[in-house]
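Good morning,

Attaching, inline, the backbone tokens for the sequence recovery test we're adding to the shared suite. The designed sequence is right after.
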């Protein structure tokens, strides 16, 4: 009976933490993860150049999905209606297609610590560098 109680408690704790916000990450480690996994397709710095393949990620936290003016998003991303926050980015980086079916993201980030670090890095950009929302 004691084993069943311990197992029930452990499963309850797991379910609670699975639904909680992602663990805080480290922006410095996130910069290294970004360089290794994301920089081939995205920029996360102020520049007048278009990113090579994907949209600019500078200021993505707090921005409406599919709204950076200088990128041709998929129709699914344009219609998603999401505003990127840490919890949604964590889910998206783990499996983009479960968050936005029809997304064109070509990379999954299965490591929870890498996702947390990336989100910390993307969240660290100063507010004055964020792209304005696209006019509706």
């Amino acid at each position: 009976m004691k084993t069943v109680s311990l197992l029930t408690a452990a499963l309850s704790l797991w379910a609670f933490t699975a639904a909680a916000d992602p663990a805080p990450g480290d922006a410095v480690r996130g910069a290294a993860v970004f360089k290794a996994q994301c920089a081939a397709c995205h920029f996360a710095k102020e520049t007048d150049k278009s990113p090579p393949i994907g949209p600019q990620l500078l200021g993505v936290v707090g921005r409406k999905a599919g709204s950076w003016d200088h990128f041709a998003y998929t129709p699914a991303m344009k219609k998603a209606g999401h505003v990127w926050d840490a919890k949604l980015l964590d889910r998206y980086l783990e499996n983009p297609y479960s968050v936005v079916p029809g997304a064109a993201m070509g990379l999954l980030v299965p490591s929870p610590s890498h996702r947390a670090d990336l989100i910390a890095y993307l969240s660290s950009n100063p507010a004055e560098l964020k792209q304005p929302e696209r006019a509706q």
